Amino acid sequence: MKIYKILLLCFIPFILTACKSDRVNIADHISPLIIEYHQNKDVSTKLLSRTEKKLFEEFIESQKITNKIINISEAVGFSQESYEAGENTNGIYKEGEDYFIKYTDLTWESIDDDYKCPIVLNHMGTLIFRSQFPVLYDETKDNINYRYRFYKKNIYDDHLDYYYKSIGNDSGLIIRYHNNSKGKVQSISLIYQELFFYSDNTNQDKHNESGITKLIVIGLVILFVVGLVVLIFIRVNH
């Protein structure tokens, strides 16, 4: 039994590392499909795992105009110097620490080749533009500004950010994967940047978690083979 305990102790760090890398693998698999969905809603999900497919389908459902919700705290910037005497924009509500508003509660006004909508939150005001909050596929399918190339990803404890640059103009897109309390991917949101900006995560692990996965698999195989050889050796000599 001693040999089994030794093997179990050897496996534990690999198992923990594998769990840590799982969220990156999920994001790596789903992100290209989200980018493709901007122009093609018939993307193939056959290579996704059951968990990945469920996350992707829930995300697509959340992006429909009747379900679309904007996280104001996450996606809308306010000038600290701005002041509005009026109340919060009608429809704004709070969940946890963030403020949200339903897309259907926004009133858009035509301006040049875009649409604008004023937002007031806690006496701070700003204008948001519909080009920064497009309805996925419906408003992106024929617009080259919503075609992207991958730039980089940042790994944080509570979320992952995948950065993309537009090939049509100077805008950008962040695909954000939110984690639950167990460190698993819980939901996905999109943050469209008027001007592409990449914020480097200096606190993240410098090792790419996806790359580590291959080493984990190799390590597990080696441990299994070594354990098997040891067991055979013990049985032969007893």
Question: What do these coordinates show?
Answer:
The chain has 238 residues and is α+β, with helices and mostly antiparallel strands. It has helices at 2-37, 50-62, 72-75, 209-236, and strands at 69-71, 93-95, 98-102, 109-111, 114-121, 124-129, 148-155, 159-166, 172-179, 185-193. The strands form 3 sheets. A 4-stranded antiparallel beta sheet has the order 7-8-9-10, covered by helices on one side. Strands 1-3-2 form a 3-stranded antiparallel beta sheet. The chain has a 3-stranded antiparallel beta sheet with strand order 4-5-6, with no helix packed on it. Strand 8 and strand 9 (172-179) form a beta hairpin. Helix 1 packs parallel to helix 2 and helix 1 (2-37) runs antiparallel to helix 4 (209-236). The longest helix is centred in the first third of the chain and has 36 residues, at 2-37. The two termini are 14 Å apart. Residues 14-20 and 205-212 have low confidence and may be disordered.
